[in-house]
Design a protein that fits this description.
single chain, 3 helices, 7-stranded antiparallel β-sheet, 40% strand, globular, alpha+beta
Length: 131
C-alpha cells in the first residue's frame, strides 16, 4: 500500500494527524513516528489526549497528511488506529522521547495505524489519485 515515494516522504518529514468527533475536527503535528516493517504507521503518544478521545468516539478512524513544502509532493493516508501500551514500539518511543526531553517527558503509549487508502495530494494530473 505504501510505495517507495510515500515511505520516503513519511520518513523525511513531520506528519499532520487528523481526527474528528462530534463534528469538531482536530489536527496535530507529530514528530515521534515510524513506519513498521509490515507497512503500518506508528506514532508515540506524548500529548495526544484529544486525538485519543476522538479515536474512541469515531471507530478509531484517522488521517495522516505528509508533504514536502518545497516540491509540493504530498499524500493523505486514511486508516484505522489501535492504541498500544507495551511492546517494542512503545519502548522505542519511550527512549526517543526521554532522550529528547532529557527525561522530562515520556511516551505513554503508541498509536499503530493500519493504512486503508493513500491519496495523492501533489498538485497536477495525479492529484486525488488513490494509490
Amino acid at each position: 500500500m505504501l510505495n517507495e515515494n510515500v515511505k520516503n516522504l513519511l520518513n523525511a518529514g513531520m506528519w499532520d494527524l487528523a481526527t474528528c468527533a462530534d463534528g469538531e475536527p482536530n489536527v496535530v503535528p507529530v514528530a515521534f513516528k515510524m513506519i513498521t516493517e509490515d507497512g503500518k504507521l506508528a506514532i508515540g503518544d506524548v500529548f495526544l489526549e484529544t486525538t485519543l478521545n476522538n479515536l474512541n468516539a469515531n471507530n478509531e478512524k484517522i488521517v495522516i497528511s505528509v508533504y514536502d513544502a518545497q516540491s509540493l509532493e504530498g499524500y493523505q493516508i486514511k486508516g484505522t488506529a489501535e492504541y498500544l501500551t507495551e511492546g517494542e514500539i512503545v519502548s522505542a518511543f519511550k527512549a526517543m522521547v526521554e532522550k529528547m526531553f532529557n527525561e522530562g517527558a515520556t511516551a505513554k503509549g503508541a498509536l499503530l495505524i493500519t493504512p486503508e487508502k493513500v491519496i495523492v495530494t501533489t498538485p497536477g494530473a495525479n492529484n486525488k489519485k488513490v494509490l
